Structures are given as C-alpha cells and as structure tokens.
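Good morning C.,

I know you're traveling, so I'll keep this short. The sequence:
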Amino acid sequence: MEQFSNLFSLPLTDPVLIFALVLLLILFSPLIFDRLHIPHIVGLIIAGILFGPNGLGLLDNDSSFRLFGQVGILYIMFIAGVDMDMNDFNHNRNKSIVFGLYTFLIPMTLGIITGLFLLNFSVPSSIVLASMFASNTLLAYPIVTRYGVSDNRSVPITVGGTMVSMLLSLLTLAVVLQVVNGDISYFFWLKFIASLTVYGLIVMFVFPAITRWFFKHYADNILQYIFVMAIVLLSSFLAKVAGMEYIIGAFLAGISLNRLIPKRSPLMNRINFVGNAIFIPFFLISVGMIVDIKMIFSGYVTIFMALVMTIMATISKYIAAQATRFTYRMNEAEGEMMFGLSNAKAAYSLAAVVLAYNTITGFTEAGNPIRLLTEEVLNGTVIMILCTCIVSSLVTERASKRLAASNVSNDKTAGYRPERRILIPISNPDTLESLMALAVILNDSKYKQPMYALNVVDYNSIDDKSSGDSDKLLERAAYIGSASDNKVKKIKRYDLNVASGITNVVREKNISEVVMGVSTKATLADTVFGSLTDKVLDEVNRMIYILSSSQPLGTVHKIVVVAPNGAEKESGFAKWCHGVLTIASQSGAGLEIRSSKDTFDAIKKNFRKSKGNITPDFIESFGFSIQDTVQSIEENDLLIAVLARRHSLSYTPALENVLSYLLSNLKNKNFIVLFPEQFKEGEIDRIQNTNTKII
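The tokens, ready to paste straight into the viewer:
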C-alpha cells in the first residue's frame, strides 16, 4: 500500500508516469487551446504553469526537464537556421543587418532610459536590463513553418536580424560583467576575438566538410539524424566555450548544414518531426514551469517591475519592426510578422538576469550584498518572459494566417499551375534511393500529388523470384516516400517490355515527368541508354530526367547546366527551368549556366518569374560542346545536360551521342540528362485540368 501511495505522491517521481503525463499534455493542449483560438505554443506554456511546481505540483522542474528544455530551445534555433532559404537570406542580407541594428539599438536606448530615470538603476544595471529588451528568442518560429510562410521575405529578415541583435546583446553583457568585476583589459578583447574567430572557422568550414563526407558514406537516415544532432550539440557547446550562449551555436550549426540538408528530404522530415513532437514541446512546458503566479501577489514592487519590463520590451520591439517596415516599404502583415517573431524573450533573458543577480557589486552597511540586478527584477523577468511569449505567439499566428491567405490569393491570380504527376520506373535497388530523392525534391510541396513507383515485369520472364523482387522494390520506394511525407502509389505492371510498360503508364496516369535511372556499375550495353531510351523518347512527350548519381544531392557543391542553342524556343522550356531552379534551391548548391547569351537571358527571366532569388553564373558557349564541360566537372559537382528530341527546334546532330559519352566519362560523378516535354504551349495543362479521375 505504501509503495502504491509513493507512486502518486506529489510531485510525481515515477519516470513512466511523468513521461506519460507530459505526452498527454503535448497531445491535448493544442486540441483544447485551438478551440479557444489560442496558439498551441501558448497552450503548452500554460500547461507548464498549471501542472508545474508552482501550480498543481504534479511535475517538478528537475534535471530531466531542464535537459529536454535546453535541447528544445537549441532545436528551435537549429531549425530556424537549417530551414532558412540561403538564397533569400543573401538577397535580404542588408535588410537583416538593418533590422538587427534597429531591434538592438531601439530597445537598448529605451531600456537604458527606463533603468536610469524610471527605475533608478545604476548605469551597469540599466545596460544589462536594456540588453534583455534587445534580445529575443525565435519561440514562435514553429508557427511560421506550420503555415508554410517561411519563404516570405519578412521571415529571413527577422531571423538574420535576431542573430545580429543576439550577438550584440551577448557582447554587451560580457563587457558589462567584465567592467563590474574589474577584469576588462586588452587581454580580454584579444582572447574574446581569437576564440570567436577559431569557433567561426570550425563551425562554418570544418563541420560542413565532415558532414559532407559522412553523408556520402552513410545513407541511412537514422544515422544521419543522430550525426546532425551531435553536430548541433557540439556546436552549441563550443559556442559556450568561446564566450557566447548555446543558442548562437545551434543557429550557426543550422546555417553551416543548411546547404547539405534538402528541405524536402527524409532527413529534414525527421528533424522537424522529432523536434515538434518532443523537444520543442518540452521546452515550452519548462518555460511555463518557471512561472510562479504567487509572485504577482508578493508585493507591488514585483508587479510594477514586471509591467514596466514587459511594456517597454514589447514597445521597443514593435517600434523596431515598424521602422524596418517603413524603411523598406513592406506591407502591414510583414511588419506584424517581424514584430511577432522578434518579441519573445526566453533563453538569453533568463541567463542574463541570473548572471546579473549573482554578480555582487558591493555591500551595504549591514553587510548585505548589493547585486547588479535585484530579486524583484529576477521575478519580473519570469513574468516578462511569459507575457512576451504569449504576445509573440498570438501576433505571429495572426501574421502567418494573413501571409498564407495572401499567398493563396496570389496563386489564384497567377493562373493555373499544372499538376505534377511524377513516375519513377525502378528495377535496380542500387539506384532506388537516388531516384526517389530526386523525385521528392521535384515534387512541389504546395501542389503535392502522389508519386508513382513503377516496376515492369516482362511477360516472358515471370517467375516467383522476379515477382517477389518487384514487390520489395515497390515497398522500399513507398517507405522512402512516406519518410518525406510523400504518398507513393505502387504499380507492378506486366507488359511485353519495359519501354512499353512505361509509355502505357504515362498515358494512363497523365504523368507530367519521368525520373529514370542508370546504374554506374553496368556496361554501356546493359544500361538504360539504348533501345529503351529511344523507345521511351519516341512514345513519351513528357519531361524525362535520367539520373546517374554517386552521392546524395544534398552534398552537391555546384550545379552545371549545359543547354543547346535555341533551348528557350521549346514548349517545355519554362518547366525544365523550374525543375533546375527547384533542384538548385533544395540542394543549396551554386548554379552555373553554359549556353548562348539569348538562352541564358531567357533562363534568368524565367527564374525571376518563378520568384527565385538564385543568381546563376554564366559561361557563354556558341555550340553544344559537352567535352569541355565534362573536363571541368569536379567530384562534388552535378552536371545537368539539357538535350532535345529529334525534329524539335533546338535539336542538332551534336546531341545524338551525348548519352553514351557521359556514361563513359562520368562514371563516378553525378549527372542528369534532361529531355524537355514537347507539348504545344498549354496542352499539358488542359489535359490535366480535365475531370478525368486518375487512380
């Protein structure tokens, strides 16, 4: 009986029961608070208040919660870095710097004035208080990803600006504490700058090189996920060693691995799933657990301090967001997004107030210590964190809805977008992973359709083994697709030959793109390059990708596109430009175009229409000289050779032997041979916009 009562004593001590309760909170908090039109992030914070040590007392803020909570905030910062579109960030880099200065200098100015003239603080205490106002945590970033508006320019501007303000805030805090302790010297600055330099070199150059090597040699997504998390935590620890906060290290780890983790990939899907399901909710609950509602009633000084800090911190961030909005003529929803994302306080504010509270600047006549920040400020900071997190979540949710609605409206006015129905013929387990990875990247997330995995079984060679192998290949393809939230429809087709099976399925399913593969281990006579390709090209007028890959697409450093003269005159020009742009943006690789000047100008114009911020390099070629291009291809490059079918506008005899030449000369390198579709303009749209039901 005593053992039974111990299981339910408060706070709970049984680890199984604690974890079960936390999972129930993670499960039901969003369901309950969504009905009340309150963001689920706020719901999890409130759940931490209610069930934590200062509420019902069921959960104790012990080491396990602190561990999971710490990993949770690191996870938020890492996802913000790895999810950022680096091309958008580079395009908006100056705006990020300006916003970062606004969102640092305005709160610093108001904070110092508040500390000196309203709260009667000393100059060092006022500066530390102001640095807390200037900092922020991207706590509401999961809301942005949930609504799919992370590509709006206000988001990368805010994320980049957050890092600027955080670095300046950390530097300010470090200098103030050194001044108060009397340790400021040339040696301090020399050590600080040297440690930051060494740390930056390790994170931005060493970590990506190690990660690229690991991804090349280990394709298992679970191993890759564990490796990535180890890099994030190591980067965070090294940031602390260098004199910064853990969260800076996590964000920089995300930036350094950004180009190695495609946004639409099983690995990215696992990163988002584990973070949003476990670590981030744990962090939000742990934030609620530090809030003590009884502090509000402990005295008017705490209430006054909390109100002043919350109001001034919120107003200063709002002014900074509006200043950026008016500087760059952004719309109201974008200004609202910048304010919402930048308003929340959490990790830095807690670290700063604790450090300042533990810093003793002197003693009273009675021998009591004089602290840099008082206990009332410590308690007020906790209330400020709660209030700013709630405001941040509410404002970000509202802004995300407005931006998402605006995107839908713009899509409607932009005209009909063709459905993407991608067919992946599979027969070789060695090429299955790379084919599915390319198909997942090409499958646009906003207009995602099921993908079709096809295995053709020859009538003349049907046996139990071939049928069993076919089922295994199709099951593997479906598993890879589901790991990246893509539905894969399995098709096992019995036909006279492979080419006939592919062409028949293309017609039956109204396929828009075919992704085919070639094994680098096969001889030329045994490969897909032969009569199979010729037959498919003769019968299929859709766009066809033929892939030969020796490493994951995420590890590609540069994409080299070679296109024939007149490629812009083909009816499928816009679609293959969109495909190349998608591969480049998802892989994060640099882009080089080798073509005539007219073709390159048409490609750049098409990129701008697709709202892509990728600026390709250009090497002018007056003919389709594939030999010169192949000689310049390095190990981590991807060659995309745009060819043409016979009798098309850009076809020349020089394209005839490109397939066999690439296979012979790029055996251990990466290339895609791309045949654009040959529809009349708009014909594929009309076909796929019919009322015919495709199963």
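Safe travels,
E.
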